UniProtKB/TrEMBL annotation:
Entry protein name: Thymidylate kinase
GO MF annotation: an example: ATP binding
Start and end residues of each Thymidylate kinase-like domain: 2-158
GO biological process entries: dTDP biosynthetic process; dTTP biosynthetic process; dUDP biosynthetic process
Organism this protein belongs to: Lentzea xinjiangensis
Cited SUPFAM superfamilies: P-loop containing nucleoside triphosphate hydrolases
Recorded GO CC terms: cytosol
Highest taxon of the lineage: Bacteria
Length: 209
């Protein structure tokens, strides 16, 4: 599972890891959440994040349920991929829901919201438990600059209300660090996203029992 702030470079990391794994003869399946254009729940999330569904985005729990339902809709496909491929890479997963929405509530990794997300997505919805999280850590300022450049280069990728909220991004980074420190749901490997990543160096943790 690849986690990190908006603009951290998760897509680049996923692409680089896929190429490195393929070069080692490993088969890889990948998914990115939210699944815009695929899942109705993801599309509702997108509409809410761009102010198209009234005050829905104000509801932390309402948004969290939509994110969770998007993943629940992909659960069978993920389980199938786990059976058929050596590695399944997910760009955002349950930890994103925990980190972002705990940050919105000004809670930390020990707060009640993080536990609520675990109970909802893992226990109630039965989503597969991850084997490893890769936390792509970058300073908030760097992530914001990258997100702004992405927006400038691609009209279709305008920043949403979460991406535009520097305070939220900063709090989210703190929650992510906390989740990594306690090994929430699975082991965490922190990757420095400020410089070029050595993708091959990450292959070891991916296959460590």
């Amino acid at each position: 599972m690849i986690e990190g702030l908006d603009g951290a470079g998760k897509r680049t990391l996923a692409t680089g890891l896929t190429e490195a794994l393929n070069a080692e003869g490993r088969t890889v399946a990948s998914h990115a959440f939210p699944r815009y254009g695929i899942s109705v729940h993801a599309d509702l999330v997108r509409d809410a994040l761009y102010g198209k569904i009234g005050d829905l985005s104000d509801s932390v729990y309402g948004m969290a349920v939509l994110y969770a339902l998007d993943r629940r809709g992909a659960a069978d496909e993920i389980r199938k991929d786990l059976e058929e491929h050596d590695v399944v890479l997910l760009d955002r997963y349950v930890a994103s829901n925990a980190a972002y929405n705990a940050a919105r509530l000004h809670q930390d990794e020990h707060g009640e919201f993080v536990e609520w997300v675990r109970e909802l997505e893992i226990e109630r919805f039965g989503l597969p438990v991850p084997d490893l999280h890769l936390l792509l850590r970058v300073p908030v300022e760097v992530a914001a600059e990258r997100a702004a450049k992405r927006e400038q280069d691609d009209d279709a990728r305008a920043r949403d209300i979460y991406e535009s909220d520097g305070g939220l991004q900063a709090r989210c980074g703190v929650v992510y660090d906390g989740l990594a420190n306690i090994g929430w749901l699975a082991p965490w490997q922190v990757v420095d996203g400020r410089s070029n990543v050595n993708f091959r160096s990450l292959l070891g943790p991916l296959f460590t029992p």
